[in-house]
UniProtKB/TrEMBL annotation:
This is CBPM Carboxypeptidase. Belongs to the peptidase M14 family. It comes from the Eukaryota. The gene is Cpm. GO terms for biological process: peptide metabolic process; protein processing. It comes from Pampusana beccarii.
Length: 389
């Protein structure tokens, strides 16, 4: 990095720190330095949110109940290096070291041999230090909302070349939320005759396979649902088009932030009411390869579409607590359903737990391929459970 900082502006009623019960949201743009539209519309978004607070009741409630992080550029060096604007491709896509930042993250499916760049490491640290629930990263070169997984293997890929995550229904909803509120993305026409995206959305892998992408990293290791928004056919359009890009995306940007309030949230506490960090809290039937855990305040956030779910809270060494919840669409109320868990026999602080940065799905794929579906099915279950632990 050429000594340039990665700037983040945080907006909310309590911008300087996390407040219990208030989810964290982020937008990141310009990770490819020559893809400039996202960088500009995030600056417009900041201005719009700040000037609308206290005047517009919806924006006021959104900011009172959400902490919004905005990083207009993840690759300032690449942006500075783009001397001759071009609709298609320039060297400014890469960082100062010539690396593509969206191929630079640890991958859940295969070993990523790219050396981690300063920008990537900074974002990984940021994800680790905040409890991000929902995110989007903004690109150019197409017009579509793309969602996890970008990579895949025998565990996740269907016969139709689609790499499905355990929360596929939520991801489809998130992508459609953006595309349907965008001026034209929902039409799905793409940028040329070769591309068409029904309803303006696509599974990342079924569009093209990608190793070391940021959205998969967010979902697997950051417990944060992220989609990739391709916002312009031209990567670096003329300045006089920027106002129109802002108008085309304005409603979609706001409606997407509201989705951070989908599903269920709460705290896990011990018999004295103290928070239990690193308790596993997941919805039954959708286990994550790296189990989702509570933060230092004992909080969890699970994005779920309306429906009935069994939420399983587990503190290692103790009996799990199961609670059935009825999730409704609370996005317009700016608060997910609240469901707390209290472990009456626990009075310890759970040990720190983190998932290794190894290709976790690779291990699952090997386990399922190695075991014949006969009497060995119990062995398979044990192997899978051991990996999920």
């Amino acid at each position: 990095l050429k000594g340039r900082d990665l700037w983040v502006l945080v907006l909310g009623r309590f911008p300087t720190h996390h407040k219990i019960g208030i989810p964290e949201f982020k937008y990141v743009a310009n990770m490819h330095g020559d893809e400039t539209v996202g960088r500009e519309i995030l600056l417009h978004l900041i201005d719009f949110l700040v000037t609308s607070y206290g005047r517009d009741p919806v924006i006021t409630r959104l900011l009172n109940n959400t902490r919004i992080h905005i990083m207009p550029t993840m690759n300032p060096d690449g942006f500075e290096a783009t001397k001759v604007p071009d609709c298609y491709y320039t060297r400014g896509r890469y960082n100062k070291n010539g690396e593509d930042l969206n191929r630079n993250f640890p991958d859940a499916f295969e070993k990523n041999n790219a050396s981690i760049q300063p920008e990537t490491q900074a974002v990984m640290n940021w994800i680790k230090n905040e409890t991000f629930v929902l995110s989007a990263n903004l690109h150019g070169g197409a017009l579509v909302a793309s969602y996890t997984f970008d990579n895949g293997n025998s565990v996740t890929i269907s016969s139709k070349g689609y790499s499905r995550s355990p929360d596929d229904d939520v991801f489809i909803h998130l992508a459609k939320t953006y595309s349907s509120n965008h001026a034209s993305m929902y039409k799905g026409t793409g940028c040329d005759n070769r591309q068409s995206f029904p309803e303006g959305i696509t599974n990342g892998y079924s569009w093209y396979q990608l190793e070391g992408g940021m959205q998969d990293y967010n979902y697997v290791w950051g417990q944060c649902f992220e989609i990739t928004l391709e916002l312009s056919c031209c990567k670096y359009p003329p300045a006089d088009q920027l106002e129109k890009f802002w108008r085309d995306n304005k409603v979609a940007l706001i409606e997407y932030i509201k989705q951070v309030h989908l599903g269920v949230k709460g705290q896990v506490t011990d018999r004295n009411g103290n928070p239990i960090p690193n308790a596993i809290v997941e919805a039954k039937g959708r286990p994550h390869v790296c189990p989702y855990r509570t933060n230092e305040h004992g909080e969890y956030f699970l994005l779920l579409l309306p429906g009935t779910y069994v939420i399983n809270a587990t503190v290692p060494g103790y009996k799990s607590i199961l609670k059935t919840v009825e999730v409704t669409d609370n996005t317009n109320n700016f608060s997910a359903l609240k469901q707390d868990f209290s472990f009456s026999e626990v009075s310890i602080r759970s040990r720190a737990a983190s998932c290794p940065k190894t290709p976790l799905y690779q291990q699952l794929g090997q386990a399922s391929a190695a075991v014949k579906p006969t009497l060995h099915i119990l062995v398979l279950m044990t192997v899978v459970l051991a990996i999920f632990k």
